[in-house]
């Protein structure tokens, strides 16, 4: 009986094994097919997102390219030209899941005219040989597109935003400049033509070779106006053979007075376009200063239309159409009257002046001198003009208001405030200082602290009025480095300030510590390793004009004012009468400012030399502020003032008088 049942059972088992194997084979084949289809889809989308157009021909059927009349190279160039022409970037996509042999997805991407979102794409997938390929049509470029269609676009340029001062006075604006050019048919022939071109080249400070190059452009005819040079001013000097038209241009009406702050614009280069595909050949971007920092906000967003054009020139479909978004107006805290006054007051000196409103931190003037005319750079500066600037040893391109200097004796009121609050400096206590140089003991070797004006004994008032280095060195040693650094920590040392300017943080030493008594003594009167920019100085010194509250510097009107408490009002009230006497007393180092009402001041001289012997190069500094209404705190620095023949305080007088 068992034998009768065994045979059928064995047969059933064999059938099941065979069926299971076939099923497994089918499932495995289906899985491989699904994986291959998915891999093809993903490769296509990755190639588009990465704009690796050389990969695309390997993913589509040869027949589909042949049907559209494209070679592989035509195919690659089609995608390359369209994507670069309308600046497609930042592509993202969503691949729809399907069991069919389909490429089915939506794509979103940015263009030069704005974002395009959720465009639907679909194409068949077919077998070609042993592989799956996409049955390509032009609808995979844009929906509704045919193979012989073209993608066209029109551009509506935005207006660049203006930069104004706090009162709405324009500092950087859009306007027109005269452009000099010639009409080829009016130049004559032979030697006459050669001589005419040479004369025009000399008058316009360009080369005859450049003129010839302009005349050889393929669009030029005998009657065409051929532009040669855009002029930096509105002057149009009469030059025989030269005609003028007008061209849109960026204008800087305050020229040298605001150059380092505002900067200038220039035409984009191939390198710029490579970094930012949204740019095109005729665009203008900020090159330096706030024009560069705020370039994206100032430049705005191009408008225009991207559309599909049929082979007979008809518009088949609009892909995107946007109005241009004009650039923002940036309103600064700068007062252009104060800016121009501070610039003019420096005369021929190399230096800088910064004016701040001490209660708000508003920067009213940021001046650096020598300077340059930014209008020359907009129009295309000649090599000879550029060489004049570049070879100037006083470096007119430097923004001195954000460069760091030793503050010298202007820092002494801050040392006094720290000492008073540390409890180690008693303002009325007189120290005996019998000599013009001093050291605590012979452990300092040959190093001495020296002073220029003799007084004995010396209290805080005398030390500030006569600017006594020895007094402040002794006070710093008495309070110790730990307490001195603790007082400095209440200020802005080592902080990155929220300003749209390149500026290193203020430092009191190279490593944020004071490792020796000599360094402590030197730091107390603003030398040693202390480096502070004029902007940072005005912020620190705002405590003197603002009852101990430190105002952070602010340059843009729509940003928040920020202050913090650094010293008590009582401490500042103790110091201020002495700073007034720096000006009012006959022997005060700032007595030259006595022609300005309601001013307190502290002069400074930062000496730069390799040894203690002799006199080194000196920078003259002045800190001054308004005692009546806290209208301003001013810091001005004159480099190598011995060569100028005037101190920073003397040069600042007309600026302070104008601020009254």
Automatic annotation (TrEMBL):
Q: Where in the cell is it found?
A: Membrane
Provide the Gene Ontology terms for cellular component: plasma membrane
**Main localization category:** membrane
What keyword terms does UniProt attach to this protein? Membrane
Task: State the source organism's domain of life.
Answer: Bacteria
Residue ranges constituting the Penicillin-binding protein transpeptidase domain according to the UniProt record: 351-652
Please state every residue range assigned to the domain named NTF2-like N-terminal transpeptidase: 42-148
- A Pfam family of the record is PBP_dimer
The Gene Ontology terms for molecular function here are: penicillin binding; peptidoglycan L,D-transpeptidase activity
A single GO BP: cell wall organization
**SUPFAM superfamilies associated with the record:** beta-lactamase/transpeptidase-like (SSF56601), NTF2-like (SSF54427), Penicillin binding protein dimerisation domain (SSF56519)
Q: Which residues form the Penicillin-binding protein dimerisation domain?
A: 157-316
Which Gene3D superfamilies does the UniProt record give? DD-peptidase/beta-lactamase superfamily, NTF2-like, domain 1, Penicillin-binding protein 2a (Domain 2), Penicillin-binding protein 2a, domain 3
- Similarity field: Belongs to the transpeptidase family.
Q: What is this protein called?
A: Penicillin-binding protein
Organism from which the protein derives = Caryophanon tenue
């Amino acid at each position: 009986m068992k034998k009768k049942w065994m045979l059928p059972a064995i047969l059933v088992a064999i059938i099941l094994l065979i069926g299971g194997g076939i099923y497994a084979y089918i499932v495995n084949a289906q899985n491989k097919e699904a994986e291959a289809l998915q891999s093809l889809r993903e490769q296509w989308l990755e190639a588009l997102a990465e704009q690796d157009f050389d990969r695309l021909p390997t993913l589509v059927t040869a027949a589909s390219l042949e049907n559209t009349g494209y070679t592989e190279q035509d195919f690659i160039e089609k995608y390359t030209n369209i994507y670069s022409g309308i600046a497609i970037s930042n592509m993202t996509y969503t691949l729809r899941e399907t069991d069919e042999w389909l490429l089915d997805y939506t794509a979103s991407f940015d263009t030069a005219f704005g974002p395009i979102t959720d465009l639907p794409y679909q194409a068949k997938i077919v077998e070609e040989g042993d592989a799956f390929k996409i049955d390509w049509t032009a609808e995979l470029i844009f929906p509704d597109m045919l193979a012989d269609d073209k993608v066209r676009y029109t551009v509506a340029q935005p207006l660049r935003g203006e930069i104004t001062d706090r009162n709405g006075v324009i500092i950087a604006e859009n306007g027109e400049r005269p452009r000099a050019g010639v009409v080829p048919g009016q130049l004559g022939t032979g030697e006459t033509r050669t001589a005419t071109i040479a004369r025009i080249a000399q008058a316009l400070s360009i080369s005859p070779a450049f003129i010839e190059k302009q005349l050889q452009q393929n669009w030029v005819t005998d009657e065409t106006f051929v532009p040669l040079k855009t002029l930096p001013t509105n002057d149009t000097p009469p030059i025989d053979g030269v005609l003028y038209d007008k061209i849109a241009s960026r204008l800087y009406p305050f020229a040298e007075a605001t150059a380092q702050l505002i900067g200038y614009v220039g035409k984009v280069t191939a390198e710029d376009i490579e970094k930012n595909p949204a740019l095109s050949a005729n665009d203008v971007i900020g090159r330096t200063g706030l024009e560069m920092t705020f370039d994206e906000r100032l430049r705005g967003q191009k408008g225009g239309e991207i559309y599909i054009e049929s082979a007979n020139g008809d518009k088949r479909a609009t892909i995107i159409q946007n109005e241009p978004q004009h650039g923002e107006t940036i309103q600064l805290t700068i007062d252009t009257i104060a800016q121009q006054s501070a610039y003019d007051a420096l005369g021929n000196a190399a230096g800088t002046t910064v004016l701040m409103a001490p209660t708000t931190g508003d920067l009213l003037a940021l001046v650096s001198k020598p300077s340059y005319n930014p209008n020359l750079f907009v129009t295309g500066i000649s090599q000879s003009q550029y060489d004049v600037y570049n070879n100037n040893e006083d470096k007119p391109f430097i923004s001195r208001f954000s460069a760091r200097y030793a503050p010298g004796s202007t820092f002494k009121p801050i040392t006094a405030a720290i000492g008073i609050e540390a409890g180690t400096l008693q303002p009325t206590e007189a120290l005996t200082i019998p000599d013009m140089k001093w050291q605590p003991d012979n452990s300092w070797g040959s190093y001495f602290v020296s002073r220029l004006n003799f007084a004995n004994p010396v209290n805080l008032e005398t030390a500030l009025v006569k600017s006594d280095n020895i007094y402040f060195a002794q006070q710093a040693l008495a309070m110790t480095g730990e307490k001195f650094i603790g007082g400095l920590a209440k200020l802005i040392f080592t902080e990155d300030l929220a300003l749209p300017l390149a500026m290193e943080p203020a430092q009191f030493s190279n490593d944020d510590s004071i490792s020796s008594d000599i360094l402590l003594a030197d730091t107390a009167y603003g030398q040693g390793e202390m480096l502070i920019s004029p902007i940072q100085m005005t912020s620190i010194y705002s405590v003197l004009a603002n009852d101990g509250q430190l105002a952070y510097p602010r340059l843009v009107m729509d940003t928040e004012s920020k202050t913090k408490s650094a010293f008590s009002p009582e401490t500042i009230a103790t110091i201020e009468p002495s700073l007034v006497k720096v000006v009012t007393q006959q022997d005060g180092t700032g007595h030259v400012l006595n022609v300005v009402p309601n001013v307190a001041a502290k002069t400074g001289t930062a000496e730069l030399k390799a040894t203690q012997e002799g006199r080194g190069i000196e920078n003259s500094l002045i800190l001054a502020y308004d005692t009546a209404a806290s209208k301003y705190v001013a810091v001005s620095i004159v480099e190598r003032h011995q060569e100028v023949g005037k101190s920073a305080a003397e040069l600042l007088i007309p600026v302070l008088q104008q601020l009254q």
